[in-house]
User: What shape does this take?
Amino acid sequence: MAKASRPRLAVWKFASCDGCQLSLLDCEDELLAVADAIDIAYFMEATRGRISGRYDLSLVEGSITTPHDAERIRDIRRISDVVITIGACATSGGIQALRNFADVREYTSIVYARPDYISTLATSTAIADHIRVEFELRGCPINKRQLLEVVSAYLAGRKPVTPAHSVCVECKLRGTVCVMVAHGTPCLGPVTHAGCGALCPSYNRGCYGCFGPMETPNAPALSQHLAELGMEDRAIARLYSTFNADAEPFREERERHGP
Amino acid sequence: MARKTRTIKVDYLARVEGEGAFKVVVRDGAVQSAELSIFEPPRFFEAFMRGRAFSEAPDITARICGICPVAYQMSSVHAMEDALGITVGGPLRELRRLLYCGEWIESHVLHVYMLHAPDFLGYAGAIDMARDHGEIVKKGLALKKAGNDIVNLVGGREIHPINVRVGGFYRIPGKRELADLGETLKSVRDIAVDTVKLVAGFDFPDRSRDYTFVALRHPDEYPFNEGRVVSNRGLDIRVADYDRHFEEVHVARSTALQSRLHGGSYLVGPLARYSLNFDRLAPAAREAARDAGLGTTCTNPFQSIIVRSVEVLHAIDEALRIIETFEQPDRPSVDVVPRAGIGHAATEAPRGLLYHRYRLEEDGSIAEARIVPPTSQNQPSIEEDLRDYVGGWLDLDDEALQHRCEQTVRNYDPCISCSTHFLKLERIEETSG
Ligand code: SF4
Ligand code: SF4
Assistant: This one.
């Protein structure tokens, strides 16, 4: 393919741990093939470069937590044909959205000696709260197979194949014994969005919801079951309140059980 | 007074993890000041950890950094175990070391091949470099993948592993799985040996300083999870006494705190670890270092790329040793009973010492958390390097100078996401008279 016709990709970072964009560099077997097919035009974690022109595809990692970033995401929308958000930070505000339930001034003074040096918003919010996005890829971190699928699909102009069922269904598909039924281990699998291949249960551990809520989950029913397993309200509230704490169904469950 | 002002801007420092900027002021041909600023938006981990369960610390603190999540998991589980009065030994301890080997390999090789080597070979990044040096980049990727294979098997996935818990693990990898991993590591070991040779041949600026090195030191191991905190200036303390000697300062230009040891700057990471623990390296790693022309200490930060490569070889040999001698434990974790207490731990993240301290309530919930990442400890040192080294490069044109400055920062493989990426160089030249 002629160089000039390769689609241009940009990778952008907001408040995050860099893990989701690192997933691209972790595609060791595919990276060079990807770089042949697309022009990785702006990706600061990997290469020196300048913002210039338009991008066919922008991958956005991280959440909006500062006034400056709320402006910057609008600029990125203007110069991008397609925007795909990657990871829990970008799709639900991430772990740093725990501030949305607290007083951010108090948080600042716990961590910093001079809170007056810090400029931050009271909330950490998803990218889609600020701009239109074409697709949201879940996970903390995202699954790299899913990332490759989504990028290829958008570049080919088709819909990505990313199942919307629960982690619970993924367990059944891979034949993993249910940790809740077999061992009474609390698990968010029934309400969590698929994508990881039911990783935690395959390691004898309950799911902690890092892919966020699936569409239309029945969280109250699960919470009821968790209570029957002996979990206290506070522990149930905590379980929903991690990397996707501000995703609506999880937030509601937290509020029903916690302070 | 006539003033000559020259401003160079790098809008965003590439090939580091996070957002930062720096500013160098030159007057009458002498460097007046050098400041590194970190604009990474604060995420307030220490604040929202309050009230969480002790058992959540490894999963939550992992999210501070996607490049070195294992380091956060290790420092947090050790600190919690210290607070709860339990020790994890035998095969479980070995498995933790194995997991750490995986992260060192993956993180170091990422830096050596993809972030740092392009500086020496004159490319914008590894993908450009691959056009002329395809074989080299492919080998680097294979080596990196082997590191990730370790983290994948022992941790469950490369980024934010799910298998680590206070007390041990959820699942122990089987014999067959470990044996296969051993085969993979053997197949890339030659690449690790060649990497040391390759980077030793790069052209290094002749720069060094009289650094205060700080690292862990263990009676008989190259340090990962345990040891005393020592320096090349006589410091030799228990981790629990860390706060008596080190303090964190908040400077206006950063959302990261800066650390000082007895009021002065110091350096953690590969150079410090190597210089304080050369005698603890695996024999092949020591030999590779000697063949590469390194002494038993290294004070040129540009050569940190050689030290990282030596540590990769060490980590491969250590991982192979663990796999070959591993005995399956009876249980994947030891029992943990919550109680009130204070716990400290420091482990060696790829970028250097990572200190955690927690105070727990009786029910095991976290009352207070403190985390000191390597990059905030190195920040003053990075600034001093700029101040000291830039003076010798003032005859360079703006672009070359800017590149040298960036490289000076990248020597540290700074992980700015950790210390709470955007780099801006302003060169203000002032001439008086
Ligand atoms: S979603 Fe998780 S892995 Fe991805 S950037 Fe945010 S914290 Fe990191
Ligand atoms: S099982 Fe749940 S917590 Fe574990 S990786 Fe999958 S979505 Fe994340």
Notes: Chain B touches chain A through 69 residues (CB under 8 Å).
